Automatic annotation (TrEMBL):
<feature type="domain" description="ABC transporter">
    <location>
        <begin position="20"/>
        <end position="244"/>
    </location>
</feature>
<dbReference type="InterPro" id="IPR003439">
    <property type="entry name" value="ABC_transporter-like_ATP-bd"/>
</dbReference>
<protein>
    <submittedName>
        <fullName>Vitamin B12 import ATP-binding protein BtuD</fullName>
    </submittedName>
</protein>
<dbReference type="Pfam" id="PF00005">
    <property type="entry name" value="ABC_tran"/>
</dbReference>
<dbReference type="InterPro" id="IPR003593">
    <property type="entry name" value="AAA+_ATPase"/>
</dbReference>
<dbReference type="GO" id="GO:0005524">
    <property type="term" value="F:ATP binding"/>
</dbReference>
<dbReference type="GO" id="GO:0016887">
    <property type="term" value="F:ATP hydrolysis activity"/>
</dbReference>
<keyword id="KW-0067">ATP-binding</keyword>
<keyword id="KW-0547">Nucleotide-binding</keyword>
<dbReference type="InterPro" id="IPR027417">
    <property type="entry name" value="P-loop_NTPase"/>
</dbReference>
Amino acid sequence: MASQEVSVHETLETAGDVVVRMTGISFAYQSKKLFSNLNLEIKRGNIYGLLGKNGAGKTTLLKLLSGQLFVQDGMVEVFGQNPQKRSPSLLQEIFYLPEEFPLPKMKANEYLAMLSPFYPRFDHTMFGVYCKDFDVDLNQRLDQMSLGQKKKVLLSFGLASNTALLILDEPTNGLDIPSKRQFRQTVASAMTENRTFIISTHQVRDMENLIDPIIILHDGSVIFNDAVASVSDKYVLNLTTSEPDREKTLYTEKVLGGWMVLSERTDESEGQPLDLETLFNVVIQTSKGTMGGVR
Ligand SMILES: Nc1ncnc2c1ncn2[C@@H]1O[C@H](COP(=O)(O)OP(=O)(O)OP(=O)(O)O)[C@@H](O)[C@H]1O
């Protein structure tokens, strides 16, 4: 690292709480406009969930903030630096686990020896612990592993890298049922107040009680960036057997045996916890302007 370069880690204590700031960004693939004047702020010490429909631009957004794609307009700052400059001091504080990835023809142990020196605070002991928890064989060749096994190796690597920013794109795709629970436990245990995780996912049930705040990307904009409680404190979810008057509810969904209804909370309201799938549907539906939005 050049001596005049700002070390991200050294400035973490004083950098304030904002890890990512995107201001008025625009991005298009060739002539296909994806983002126009998009704004986003991500704060330290949280496990963010990034949600959006297929093609909403989640992976593109993650690539923009990790310096793999460049915005056409606006400003991106990660720990106060422009990721487009791809400075080593910033890149060694970002670990990005893509949804799909080729891996070299080598054993997991050899991969570890090759790549871990890039991350100054890589914790070899914890890497071993995570791999053991995920039941990964480090002597197996990476190119001969299943998708789920590869994900477990890279996930263990990313968590052990101790980067200040960890980006996981669809991390539970390919994981078996017991591994999904292990995933939640391991990710939660690796979180510290100085780290920030961003998890892009469609598998919201895998992520219940893990991701919060939630970012929702829709129609080229961030339409929601807040804690789940910001909605569940104001609105309550109830099951009803009689068909509700849709004009008087914020959100209605036909379910087995009745309807699920989201309505404004009153002092006496008792209801069910707001799950992420419903939160997503409510935010997308209300963003169409028919009910003025949940926020
Ligand atoms: N390299 C590329 N060239 C042209 N268009 C692209 C390219 N990569 C992505 N796109 C388009 O940009 C849009 C957003 O893609 P992106 O992969 O960011 O969405 P996503 O929200 O991650 O989708 P999914 O949930 O399906 O994974 C899609 O319409 C996609 O077809």
